[in-house]
From TrEMBL:
Residues 1-21 form the signal peptide. InterPro entries: HupE_UreJ. The chain crosses the membrane at residues 37-56, 63-82, 88-105, 112-131, 137-160. It holds the Pfam family HupE_UreJ. It comes from the Bacteria. This is HupE/UreJ family protein. Keywords: Membrane, Signal, Transmembrane, Transmembrane helix. The lineage of its organism: Bacteria, Pseudomonadati, Pseudomonadota, Betaproteobacteria, Rhodocyclales.
Length: 191
């Protein structure tokens, strides 16, 4: 029940951005930042996968993986804002979909000391890409938008994984979902 309330609050917060879509508001570009993670299948799948995979971690990993992803994503955006060059951004994003999908498909539970740096490296690529698509938006409001969208996608992945029972059939469905994510990542790498 609590997850559905969080999701509802995030959706309502996301809708607030469209009310600020006209000039003259300090949050005028929140909506653009909110929309960007939803604009590509690669971002959507990677962020859902972080939520799904976080549930597998258990304990503090359930919130550390999504929080670490968001923090590293902001660091990636900051690198872009500072004019740093991050090589192979699209390949890094596609690799995030591939690797996270494989971890879900194989039902692998990495130790948190390995999983957190892994998702953080991938998040840097996502953050850098978000910044690159910012255009003339104000960095703070735009970043608030893409952080909100990312949290929404993480929560949706977590809720989906939590909603599924711990039956062999449900675990098989999660594995197939992970396999589909991995296959999509492989296709994206080849593009």
């Amino acid at each position: 029940m609590a997850i559905s309330r969080v999701l509802l609050a995030l959706v309502l917060a996301g809708g607030a951005g469209s009310a600020l879509a006209h000039g003259g508001h300090s949050g005028a570009h929140f909506g653009a930042g909110l929309a960007h993670p939803f604009s590509g299948l690669d971002h959507v799948l990677a962020m859902l996968a972080v939520g799904i995979y976080a549930l597998r971690q258990g304990g503090a990993g359930r919130w550390l993986l999504p929080a670490g992803f968001v923090a590293a994503m902001l660091a990636g955006a900051a690198l872009g804002a500072l004019g740093a060059e991050v090589p192979a951004v699209e390949a890094g994003i596609a690799s995030s979909v591939l690797v996270l999908g494989l971890l879900i498909a194989a039902a692998v539970r990495l130790p948190l000391a390995a999983a957190l740096p892994l998702v953080s490296v991938f998040a840097v690529f996502h953050g850098y890409a978000h910044f690159a698509e910012m255009g003339g938006a104000g960095l703070m409001s735009y970043a608030l938008g893409f952080v909100t969208a990312t949290a929404m996608l993480h929560a949706m992945g977590f809720a989906l994984a939590r909603w599924m029972p711990e039956t062999p059939l449900a675990q098989g469905i999660k594995r197939v979902l992970g396999g589909a994510m991995a296959a999509t990542g492989l296709v994206l790498l080849g593009s």
